């Protein structure tokens, strides 16, 4: 039986990426992977870079490489505010690997506890998550 | 005589070629301007939603926690100021680049007079190369994207500034860019980026979101507030929202600067095309005169020859 659907919008600074009814949203917050179904309680959470899945059916889903952002559940609607959301085929693995190497280098150069260090760690996490999506791996899920 | 006629003809041809190029550049700039305007529009819903969320989280967070955020702290002693100049990668856009550089150098001179140190950050090849040429080597140089800045570019710039600020390398960050008013008007604007002006986060919210549903949402928040689950905590969310606010401010400045650049180039190229048109008219007149003089000369020679025979 089909599950109840609810409206979801994915907004990025470069415009709206997705706005439609779905059965489930699967993403990752600070505390771990979450699946949001209809009638979820109001929530405001921080999102980690991961593979975002928007389920329109039992096994039909749209995938995105999702950057950091926020999820807001209110009045039966889900709003995902993310810095970036890319379709898997628009990702360039070679380019991402290059960015990852750079972030890893910055991380080992930075002093623990500085903002520089925090930033390199965030960059590293983001590029790792994106590479995983591009290579169709299910890491983080 | 005929030599000068050929000369003028050559000049007309070359001016016509220039006019063709300037007209093409004008049209390209017009198309890019439209796209840049759309991208400014595309940012609005996101920026508005982030503001609404910031307000919701701020309402739920304890005010002591909010005030301890390093990005909101005004330093008692501001000794080192960073100036971020937003220029373009390319020229041929009227005063677009030079007015930013002029404003930046003047701001730096004023700050130095007050005994403050100045560090430059520059976006766009024009700004970077001028500063380097003037031995004011920018601390951060960002080039290659001013035609179409992505959010990732803004994030890179903003994070460099934030880390420099948090790690105490600079005590204040100011932003100088061309704000987009219309295709014909661009205004040089100077804003303080860091520390974040608390007032601008909360106050600007009301101004921009008059008709959106998100606003109605936010107004209902206080009532439903107790039921909202925060992950991790309102304070934890604010710690991320505030730097994001800086990123959005930089992104907006980059987008507005890009729209301004295309607008300025469109205007500059339209003027150039018009000037070329006038020049062609003048040169055509000159050529016609030269041809007429030549014809008159020939007739006189013929008449004189006929008279000589009779």
From TrEMBL, chain A:
Q: Which residues form the ATP synthase F1 complex delta/epsilon subunit N-terminal domain?
A: 7-85
Keywords of the record: ATP synthesis, Cell membrane, CF(1), Hydrogen ion transport, Ion transport, Membrane, Transport
Give the top-rank taxon of the lineage listed in the UniProt record for this protein.
Answer: Bacteria
Keyword hit for Cell inner membrane: no
CDD domains referenced in this protein's UniProt entry, alphabetically = F1-ATPase_delta
- What kind of membrane protein is this, topologically? Peripheral membrane protein
SUPFAM superfamilies membership: Epsilon subunit of F1F0-ATP synthase N-terminal domain (SSF51344)
Q: Where in the cell is it found?
A: Cell membrane; Endomembrane system
Where is coiled-coil annotated? none
Has the keyword Nucleotidyltransferase been applied to this entry?
A: no
What's the subunit arrangement here? Answer: F-type ATPases have 2 components, CF(1) - the catalytic core - and CF(0) - the membrane proton channel. CF(1) has five subunits: alpha(3), beta(3), gamma(1), delta(1), epsilon(1). CF(0) has three main subunits: a, b and c.
Reported function: Produces ATP from ADP in the presence of a proton gradient across the membrane.
Q: Which family does it belong to?
A: Belongs to the ATPase epsilon chain family.
PANTHER family reported in the protein's UniProt record: ATP SYNTHASE DELTA/EPSILON CHAIN, ATP SYNTHASE EPSILON CHAIN, CHLOROPLASTIC
Task: Please identify the protein, giving its name as recorded.
Answer: ATP synthase epsilon chain
Organism of origin: Svornostia abyssi
Taxon lineage: Bacteria, Bacillati, Actinomycetota, Thermoleophilia, Solirubrobacterales
UniProtKB/TrEMBL annotation, chain B:
Q: What is its main location?
A: membrane
* Localisation per UniProt entry: Cell membrane; Membrane
Q: Which residues form a coiled coil?
A: none
Mode of membrane association: Peripheral membrane protein
Q: What is this protein called?
A: ATP synthase gamma chain
Instruction: Alphabetically list the UniProt keywords.
Output: ATP synthesis, Cell membrane, CF(1), Hydrogen ion transport, Ion transport, Membrane, Transport
Q: Which gene encodes it?
A: atpG
Describe its assembly: F-type ATPases have 2 components, CF(1) - the catalytic core - and CF(0) - the membrane proton channel. CF(1) has five subunits: alpha(3), beta(3), gamma(1), delta(1), epsilon(1). CF(0) has three main subunits: a, b and c.
Q: Can you tell me which family this protein belongs to?
A: Belongs to the ATPase gamma chain family.
Q: Which HAMAP family match?
A: ATP_synth_gamma_bact (MF_00815)
Tell me, in a sentence or two, what this protein's role is.
Produces ATP from ADP in the presence of a proton gradient across the membrane. The gamma chain is believed to be important in regulating ATPase activity and the flow of protons through the CF(0) complex.
Q: Which InterPro entries match?
A: ATP_synth_F1_ATPase_gsu (IPR035968), ATP_synth_F1_gsu (IPR000131)
